[in-house]
Amino acid sequence: MRAGMWKAALCVAAICSATVCVAAQQNAAAPTSPTSYVNLNQMHLSGLEGDYITHDFKFSDGQTLPEVRLHYTTLGTPQRDAAGHVTNAVMILHGTNRAGRVWLTPTFAGVLFGPGQILDTSKYYVILPDQLGAGLGKSTKPSDGLRAKFPHYDYSDMVRASQILLKDGLHVNHLHLFIGASMGCMEGFMWGESNPGDMDAMLLLSCLPVEIASRNRMVRKIMIDDIRLDPAWNNGNYTEQPYGLRAALGHLLVVGSIPTRWQTDYPSAAAADKFVNDYIEQNMKTTDANDFMYQYDASRNFDASKDLEKIRAKVLLINPQEDFWNPAELGIAEEQIKRVKNGKFVLLSFPESYGHYTFFQAAAWQKYFAEFMKTVEK
User: Fold this and answer.
1) Does residue 304 contact residue 190 with C-beta atoms inside 8 Å?
2) SS3 content of the chain, % helix, strand, coil (to 5)
3) Of the candidates 302, 367, 332, 378, which has an alpha carbon nearest to the alpha carbon of residue 96?
4) Where are the beta strands (DSSP E) in the chain?
5) Residue 374: what are its φ and ψ, rounded to 5°?
6) Are residues 20 and 39 in contact, defined by beta-carbon separation less than 8 angstroms?
7) Is the dihedral of CA 216, 127, 191, 317 positive or negative?
8) Which domains, and CATH codes, for the chain?
9) pLDDT at 32 over 50
10) Which of 145, 169, 149 shows the shortest CA–CA distance to 49?
11) Cβ(294)–Cβ(142) below 8 Å
């Protein structure tokens, strides 16, 4: 291991000393973000948090950084075969501008990682990276200092960074299971095509493999322009977060909305106004404009639809009915998954939907996941 890999190593349980750790000032920029984390001690789980430093990282735009810090959390213990290869690794990639810790929410970790659960960490070695550039993570990102001079990375750079962390940092050459949600889901399609032998199976949540276009791209452009066209942005050299970031967060709030649930939760003008005000104020404290712009622009050239036939892993794609980003009525997922040799698609439709962010609610889809894992373990 290179120097610095375990520089920040510590027991994750130390982060969560209370029964449920309230993540004040750490919620991600989305309306249904986790606001509390499980207590790993009480779940009888152990974990490590650390950094791996990779050198001379070359980006797809040709630029290079002398050092890139890749932060991660791991749960469980790697198991090795006679040749020394890890056989039980599970990597989970988060969505746009988030961090690996979002998976430690009770509705995800509390449902999947405990004793006897589907991803029981006494059996699996679970890896939760903070992806390159993500604003809430501890990996290298624009707000670390370079601001708008940071290389304009894309999803291919993010995938490559995760591959470097996995193979060079953690010495894992193969994944038993890859899980990705939203942006992480799209990256899963890319990874499965470019390196089809890297994983046995993939659980992909809330995404489509086609080019980011139509309404999805329009919203991303609107949010980026909210910031870029604000004079206070000053080419990324602002002294305080530009007001345009408030507008961008507002647009993000709307596209992450869940009409049926919100009608029940915020049935009056006063309740709706309070929710919006609280959401904007809280996220203005935790979101950096450059990080935000870079993350949403990273999807600009995504299109995994060209090589779906190259994927060899077993794939389960689960999308919710109420998803503004990936409208179910387009029928794209049903058609595209047919091109994946071992692919299956599930469309979730239920009254308690959390829309796009249903991936945090593992109880809503765990029965499909459990059935899928039975086929993987054969």
Assistant:
1) yes
2) 40, 20, 45
3) 302
4) 10-11, 21-22, 36-37, 47-58, 64-75, 89-93, 125-129, 175-181, 199-205, 314-320, 343-348
5) -65, -35
6) yes
7) negative
8) 10-210+298-376 (3.40.50.1820), 215-289 (no CATH)
9) no
10) 169
11) yes
User: Which of 215, 195, 171 minimizes the C-alpha distance to 356?
Assistant: 215
Quote the CA–CA distance of 267 and 261 in Å, as a whole number.
10
Q: Which amino acid is at 40?
A: L
Angle at 373 between CA 372 and CA 378, to 5 degrees: 105
Look up residue 172 and give its two tokens: 């894992």
Joined together, the tokens standing for residue 40 give 């790993």
Read off the tokens for 214.
């139509």
Which tens digits make up the pLDDT trace of 269-301?
Answer: 999 999 999 999 999 999 999 999 999 999 999
Considering only the C-alpha atoms of the chain, give the largest distance between any 2 of them, rounded to a whole number of Å.
64
Strands 343-348 and 314-320: parallel
* Predicted TM-score (pTM) of this structure: 0.91
**Residue range 61-82, pLDDT digits in tens:** 999 999 999 999 999 999 999 9
Q: Which two tokens stand for residue 356?
A: 């796009």
Question: Residue 116 and residue 123: Cα distance in Å, rounded?
Answer: 9
Give the whole-angstrom CA distance, residue 275 versus residue 298. 29
**Which of 326, 60, 367 lies closest to 205 in space, CA to CA?**
326
Burial degree of 150 (CB within 10 A; 0-12, 13-18, 19+): buried
Residue 342, token pair as written in the block: 């071992």
Amino acid, res. 345: F
**181, 100 Cβ separation under 8 angstroms:** no
Paired tokens of 323:
């998803």
For residue 360, the one-letter residue type is F
